[in-house]
Amino acid sequence: xxxxxxxxxxxxxxxxxxxxxxxxxxxxxxxxxxxxxxxxxxxxxxxxxxxxxxxxxxxxxxxxxxxxxxxxxxxxxxxxxxxxxxxxxxxxxxxxxxxxxxxxxxxxxxxxxxxxxxxxxxxxxxxxxxxxxxxxxxxxxxxxxxxxxxxxxxxxxxxxxxxxxxxxxxxxxxxxxxxxxxxxxxxxxxxxxxxxxxxxxxxxxxxxxxxxxxxxxxxxxxxxxxxxxxxxxxxxxxxxxxxx
Length: 244
Fold this sequence. Notes:
Layout: E1 2-6, H1 10-22, E2 26-30, H2 33-43, E3 47-51, H3 59-68, E4 76-81, H4 86-94, E5 99-102, H5 107-169, H6 178-200, E6 207-211, E7 214-217, H7 237-240
């Protein structure tokens, strides 16, 4: 991982850098708050070790700025504070730090905190990857269910509409049947419009098994395009399974 050391004391900075390099990580260093912020923006480090008492922009202000502009890149912040105790802990956590360590700090102590940070970063990365994979799987499943829903709900009325429109277009309607054929076209178009309206009203999608292993959105749970004349509020059978 990439580690930014924001520390104004050259000796402490060198000692920390040696520990980080010995653990096999890339090291970026900064001597004040402004330099550290520039490095955060340019390098996108996985871990920032920052001295709370940095000159210029102090460590707490830097931490707050990191948190305000993370853009989904979760940077682990380990704050180094000259004071131990509840007040110091509250200050660094309120600023958005993930962990803190109080001075003086030995090499072994810093190495242990580095290992803890590395493990937490890895766990967080695994969690975010799993969430992304789950979101992708849900999206693909939703696409499939939507496709099945449209096929089931729209195919029949669309086929009837296009078939009757073709009869009109080709002049195959018998004299006196024009109004009847046109009425079918309008009826099937209204059925399609009703399906679209129910789709737009979906707020809490529920799935129903259409065929074995094939799922679709259950539009019967949503508000119908027409008011329900049944005073008991029951769902009509013809709405649940519209005729072909």
